[in-house]
Amino acid sequence: MELEFIQWLRAHAPDDPRAKLGLSDDAALLSFGDKTNIVVTTDLLTDGVDFELGKHEPKRVGRQALAANLSDLAAMAARPHSALISLALPRGGGANRGALELAIALYEGIEPLAVEYDVVIAGGDTNTYDGPLVLSVTAIGQITERGPLTRTGGKAGDWLLVTGALGGSILGHMLDFAPRVHEAMLLHERYELHAGIDISDGLALDASRLAKASRCGALLYTDRVPVSSAAIRLSELDRADDIEASALRHALSDGQDFELLIAAGPQTAATILQERPLECAITQVGELVAEPGLWQHSMQGQRKPLEEIGWRHA
Ligand SMILES: [Mg+2]
Fold first, then answer.
1. Rounded to whole angstroms, how far apart are CA atoms 261 and 279?
2. SS3 of residue 63 by DSSP
3. Other C-beta atoms within 10 Å of 15: how many?
4. Separation of CA 199 and ligand 1 centre (Å)
5. Closest CA relative to residue 201, chosen from 10, 291, 71, 84
6. Cα(165) to centroid of ligand 1, in Å?
7. Alpha carbon of 83 to ligand 1 centroid (Å)
């Protein structure tokens, strides 16, 4: 539904120079006519859909909600500034908890992350009703002198680099991950990056989104994808016949990795790989190609289509 609604909005909302990229990138770029450029991103999370309060502590849910937004700011290489938090709380708080108690528990997860990333909680709203917890976070960031990193600047021949390792986030990473804010800002400041996106819905799908926005195709070297130990563990728990193939599928398609996918010219990308400026791993997983679509190298080294597998929002 979400994609169709965005398409409808694009057709109905006229272009306005005051707000760019909002429907097509990780965050909206707001322009005030001077040099003040601000990016804004928002997320709406519902109990039972995006998390399960029965299973996950409210503190971790609160933390995750802010962290996911900071990851979108990272995708734009923006410096986090502030956030607004809105809560629709179940009357009675659910799980033998009062609504106030639940709100405070969520905040206790949000606050330490806000402090860590120097984000001020600038406001929000709360309500109680007879329904599940709904949590909305809006994060505001400042773009640096380099301008925003967007999805649109990639060129055929660019190398695709990814931070960290992918897949199996459901085993815990999705709640406890560190948004790649510092990594994105450092890379964007030090190197000439062409495009970037955060991997929220799976490498295959998000690589395809970046490629489409850059009017290219993407070719993934599936044998070079950094598969996380969680992806392997998940495949073992699934009792998959082929653990390696299953783990790779998790790495390509699992949502909520919140790693960065960057496109940069081959020389720049090679320099990044050589200098390894980040504390986390950074790996080449493919390249942008002129031919539209999503591709992989086959075992024989031939190019064949790769399904756009990933997490699709209802
Ligand atoms: Mg994103």
1. 16
2. helix
3. 7
4. 7
5. 71
6. 17
7. 16
Residue 175 has what pLDDT? 87
Instruction: Kindly give the interhelix angle for 58-75 and 99-116, rounded to the nearest 10 degrees.
Output: 40
Q: What's the pLDDT at 299?
A: 65
Q: What CA–CA distance (Å, rounded) separates 252 from 177?
A: 18
The predicted pLDDT at position 314 comes to 58
Q: What per-residue confidence (pLDDT) applies to 20? A: 77
Regions of the chain with pLDDT less than 50: none
Tell me how far the alpha carbon of residue 62 lies from the centroid of ligand 1, in angstroms: 18
Predicted local distance difference test score (pLDDT) of residue 217: 97
For residue 68, the CA-to-ligand 1 centroid distance in Å is 8
Q: What is the DSSP letter of 215?
A: T
Q: Look up residue 2 and give its two tokens.
A: 């979400």
CA nearest to 121, candidates 131, 112, 132, 134: 112
CA of 299 to the centre of ligand 1 (A): 31
Instruction: Name the one residue in this structure whose structure tokens are 């660019």.
Output: 158
Q: How many whole angstroms from 95 Cα to the centroid of ligand 1? A: 31
Separation of alpha carbons 8 and 20, rounded Å = 17
Which tokens hold the place of 276? 């390894």
- Per the DSSP assignment, residues forming a β-bridge with 303 are 297
